[in-house]
Amino acid sequence: MARCVTAKCADVLAWSRGVQPDIAVFGLSTALFHSSAVPEMECA
User: Fold this and answer.
1) What averages of pLDDT result for each successive group of 10 residues across the chain (44 residues)?
2) Residues 9, 36: Cα–Cα separation, whole Å
3) What's the rounded Cα separation, in Å, for the pair 36 and 5?
């Protein structure tokens, strides 16, 4: 899906983040696909 969008958009980023909802813990972001440079995405 993300690759199809690159024909219409300048930058595309598809990402995922693991989560453990029972203890409200989020994992690190993982870029699944990107069409350009990926900026740092982690926030405090």
Assistant:
1) 70 81 83 73 56
2) 11
3) 13
